[in-house]
Amino acid sequence: MNDLDLTLRAALADALAAIGATPAPAPDSLALQPTRKEFAGAYTFVTFPFAKAAGKAPEALGQALGEYLRANCPAVSGYNVVKGFLNLEIADGEWLNQFAVLSSAANDQQPETSNQKPKVMVEYSSPNTNKPLHLGHLRNNFLGYSVAAILAENGAEVTKANLINDRGIHICKSMIAYQRFGHGETPESSGTKGDHLVGHYYVLFDKHYREEVRQLQNEGLTEEQAKKQAPLLTGAQEMLLRWEQGDLATVELWRRMNGWVYDGFEQTYKSIGVDFDRYYYESDTYLLGKERVEEGLAKGVFFRKPDSSVWVDLTTEGLDEKLLLRADGTSVYITQDLGTAELKYQETQCEQSVYVIGDEQNYHMQVLQAVLRKLGKPYAEGIHHLSYGMVDLPSGRMKSREGTVVDADELVQEMIDTARATTQEMGKIDGLTETEAETLFRTLALGALKFFLLKVEPKKRMLFNPAESIDFQGHTGPFVQYTHARIRAIGRKAAAGTTATDASPGAYDGALQPTERELIHQLLGYRTAVRVAARELAPSVIAQYAYDLARTFNRFYADVRVLDEADASRRTFLLTLCARVAATLQRSLGLLGITAPERM
User: Fold this and answer.
1) Which residue spans within 342-466 are E strands per DSSP?
2) What is the model's pTM?
């Protein structure tokens, strides 16, 4: 909440008390909202909830409050009432006072925090080591990275975590396919990125497995029997048992192939600009998960079936019975997740643990939290599933590997190529060296990709259109990036074309243009946008804020001749306003993981 909000709420509380509303409301209980564009004013106060206490009709109450504020609150220059909505107009002097405070180095939009920072862990990416990252992973990574940045900006102590799904039957499928068909191939010998190479063998497993199933069916087995008895699958199951028993040859192959994948992942993470503070590996946490299963059995909240498998009954929670340990003693996904949740809490004592996981895992996450509650874990209530929807493409897919998924590395390169073509066509690389131009293409490509994936509320399924995302005039990252670069260019021109003056940013005390008031109002709203985005775990709030600020600036720059202004104090004010908008755009884009270019 900024100083102007506090001033208006306090004045409204005084006005309600003066009018005779009982009980007199506390300023913090009063809500202000932005005035709709079709009405004059900056803030709107809804009078309906207070009409009865004041003994007036909502519209009459609005008139009475407006008169009181205009007479007793210097910040309010005028008002209008539309039914039960009181729209408040703010005096230019107050806007300038607020901007002077906003521009001071001491303020600098610091987060509103107590001495005790809440500890939050954000887990994202969470890839399997049997295939490369794909389009869905990009939305996951960008969401997680941005949410972590927003929470930190809002004052939390954030740990960014990546849980590597490096064990299980799916991993063994890639391993056994490599044993059967790999002939010693390596990333170096094949010239293939490590995660892509291992993913190739995962696809080969599926291809040959389906062939085996068909062959067994031709020999008289039912489809269900054939799927269970196919040699590749039984071989992968046996391999998983050997791995859990610590068989040296199996573990060595697992380490070698996982190492290839880790190298590939790190290249992708560096390329897309995300990082992590901690890595967790299911190969480590599954044993801790098994301990939690034994704990549940000892407490009587889990039960063992005749085949020795372990289950939990969650029917009273509106869920179902859930398998926790297979009959052969091997763990399942939930077993590993129980161990990971325990390890996270042991290491960080995090009050909240945010899991960025697709909406297909909604039920699984409900089960995880329900099981932890049954175990009486103190961190159970702090688990939050940030569920997100699928990402589709206009064509259904785009340069996909094996025609099934959209590869992340290929999509990023496709975006760079699109940015290059679009930027060259528009002539926005004049004066840049080849290296600077290539850096700009990558910056714009990632800005377009991240902004497009983050501007939509996480829960919504979305359609990603690569060509649309790169538009310099649309609701896109490049539009915001270009606005930032344009403002920086204004600053350079001003510094190169004028001599220094004695005017200070706070020296101007004249009239403001409508877009100048709107810019100051929006700048004051940055901290509110961060607070809302942190509460809702929604980077889309910041994306919309940055876009609105950029759009208002472009209207302002079309209306106001900044560099032609003759009055020194006004010119300094205008340039300071431009600089503050650029800094806020840069900060907002940074929360989305997007770089704000200095030149375009």
Assistant:
1) 352-358, 383-388, 391-392, 462-463
2) 0.91
